[in-house]
What does this fold into?
Amino acid sequence: MGVPQSGHPLAERALYNMNRYQMTLLAVLLLIGLVVYIHYFEKDRDDGDTITLYTLSKTEIQSVEMTEGGKSLKIERDQNGTWRLDIDSILAFWSEPQVKKLESSEPIKEFAKFGLEPPEKRLRLTLKTGESKLLRVGKKTAVGWERYLQLEGSPNLYLMPDYRAADLTTDEKRFKAVSAPTQQPAEKRADPSSSKAAAH
It folds into this structure.
C-alpha cells in the first residue's frame, strides 16, 4: 500500500488530525505555563480588602511628574495656584490611592520580575512644602486587571487597578488645557466733577 499523495482524502485527514493535535498540545503548554507563572510569581498574592496607601491633600500638591519609556512630563501649578492642564483624574486617585498589599512569606528582593526594575512608569507628587512621593508602576499581573506598585522607601509590594495606570502618560495632548478664569471688569468709580456738573 503506497503513501497517500497530497490532495488525497486520507492525506487531508492526516493533515487535519496533525493540526488539531498541535493546537491541543499548544493549549496544554500555555495552560501549564500559566499555572507555573501563578505559582512562582503570584503565590503570595493577597486578595483581601483594599487599603489607603497614604493620604495627601489635593490642594497641597504643587506638581505632578510622570515618566514612561525614557520620556517625562511635569505639570505644575502656576503662580496663582492653577493647574495649566486638567489632571483631576490623577489627583483623585493618587492623593489617596486605594491598593492591595501583596503579602509575602519572605522579604521581596527581586523586583525585576514584577516589572519594577526598571519600572514601566513612574509618578512623583511634589507638595508645596518640597516633600514628595515617588511611585513605581510595574507590569500587569497574570489576571490582567491589576498592576504591581511600589512606593519609594517602602519594602512592600502593592496591587493597583490597571486602568489607573493609563492616566500616567507623558503625552501632553491627552490632557485638556485649563481655561484661565475670566476676570470681571472693575466698576467705574463716579467722577465727582461729573456729578457736580449734573447738579448744576
About this structure: The longest helix spans residues 9-41. The two ends are 131 Å apart (CA to CA). The mean pLDDT is 82.
